Amino acid sequence: MCIRDRYKGDPLIREELNPIAKVSQEFLASIESSSFRKLPKEPYKVLDAPGLRNDFYLNIVDWSSTDILAVALSHALYVLKENLTQVELILEIPPGNEITALSFSPNGSHLFLGYTSGAVQVVDTEASKVVASYTGHSSVVTCGSWLNDSLFSTGADDKLILDRDVRTPTPFVKFHEGHKQKVCNLKWSLDGRFLASGGCDNKALVWDLHHVSPLLTLSGHTAAVKGLAWNPLSGNLLATGGGTDDRSIKIWDCVDNKCLKSTDTGSQVCCMEFSKRGHELITTHGYMNNAISLWNPYSLAKLGAIAGNSGRVLHLAISPDGETVATGAEDETLKFWKMFPSGKKGKECVSSLILSCMEPVSYTHLRAHETSLHLVCRLLLEKKKKKKKQKREKDKKKQK
Q1: Who's near 75: CB < 8 A, 6+ residues apart?
Q2: Contact 341, 348 (CB under 8 A)
Q3: Could you tell me if 238 and 229 are in contact, meaning their C-beta atoms sit under 8 angstroms apart?
Q4: For 103, which DSSP code?
Q5: Dihedrals phi, psi of 31, to nearest 5 degrees
Q6: What whole-number percentage of the chain has pLDDT above 70?
Q7: Top-confidence residue, 12 or 78
């Protein structure tokens, strides 16, 4: 059963689940890589990060909406503030336990921490102190994601996903059980409708807040699914990435339960994020090329890559203004790249021009923009097809 069938009794929900119009996706997928700008060859800042764990399954770097970067190093939690110029030690962990996962709440006021012991804590980022502690997991907590500023979910080696509420001391308010092996990553969609999970059982599952069993099982990867990212412009499009024995990126329509696109990247997919406006997909890689790559999220055409990393690029975060990408690698460094600089000169990607007015918003708001986007894309696509036809006719005349 697909999600569209599950909600078929509610016309409002069914309408909101509709993806970006097909003609819009067709045009965005047709944009050639030559129309995109160049990527930086070097990071503009490099920081030593001694103790940054070399572990594919952990999620220990995040960047808040209030411009604070958090990173777990060995037995301590550090944050970088004031445009990355001020470093603060927030928490020291007793020997025998380590931070294995962290994630900021949407408003940046709280930071979730997961531990090797299975414990979970929430830190008040302004007061720099622990305000809540939870149990529930029996092994290493590998990931977490916030639904809103109160509710968040955690995943662990024990194969469980637990929903927590910072407003109550209850260890968890609901559990989800579906993975056969450890949970590698969790991501709530921006509209709050779906939770995606990736596991070492080579599957991605899609859940909601109301059911303990998954709505969808996305099969097709042949290794652990660590890479997860929801398209901010379409609440039903999910990107997934597989490990060393898989190496693929897949784009799923979670409403109709279909894999729309798939490509072999040639190396382990460690992390992935959409750019803030959703028209580019960023991935980081391990074995074999240790690169940072950029993709058209509709066609999965490769738009460029940054090579030269000395080890696997295991961690990824994007600044709140959407300009800077932070990466953490097994060489124990944090590197900062100006991937999407504002006010850049030169020719800008057509999809960027079309989508520049569309910030990540609720799905209802997005639908209000769809008619104009649909018309613009239809006209541009027809113009593109007309030019190709004229070129073919011209070539035929030359051959005669």
Answers
A1: 51, 92, 93, 94, 95, 97, 98
A2: no
A3: yes
A4: E
A5: -65, 130
A6: 80
A7: 78
For residue 362, pLDDT over 50 is answered with: no
* Whether residue 34 has pLDDT greater than 50: no
pLDDT band at 341 (very low <50, low <70, confident <90, very high): confident
The owner of tokens 């007793």 is: 94
Interatomic CA distance for residues 323 and 337, integer angstroms: 8
Please count the residues of the chain.
400
Calpha distance 195→188 (Å, rounded): 4
Q: Which residue's entry shows tokens 């382990």?
A: 268
pLDDT digits (tens, 9 = 90+) for 95-116: 999 999 999 999 999 999 999 9
Q: What is the DSSP string of 179-239?
A: -SS-EEEEEE-TTSS-EEEEETTS-EEEE-TT-SS-SEEE---SS-EEEEEE-TT-TTEEE
CB 86 within 8 A of CB 101: no
Helix (H, G, I), strand (E, B) or coil at 244: coil
Residue 269: name the closest of 335, 310, 224, 301 by CA: 224
- The alpha carbon dihedral of 54, 56, 60, 62 has a sign of positive
Q: Which tokens sit at 228?
A: 């997860």
Long-range CB contacts (< 8 A, 24+ apart) of 362-367?
362/191, 363/16, 363/191, 363/193, 363/235, 364/16, 366/233, 366/234, 366/235, 367/15, 367/16, 367/18
Q: Among all chains, which residue has been given the structure tokens 């990126």?
A: 249
Please name which of 176, 177, 180, 178 lies closest in space to residue 163, comparing C-alpha atoms: 176
pLDDT value, residue 344? 47
- Separation of alpha carbons 52 and 47, rounded Å: 11
Which residue's structure tokens are 């502690």?
A: 133
**The pTM is what?**
0.80
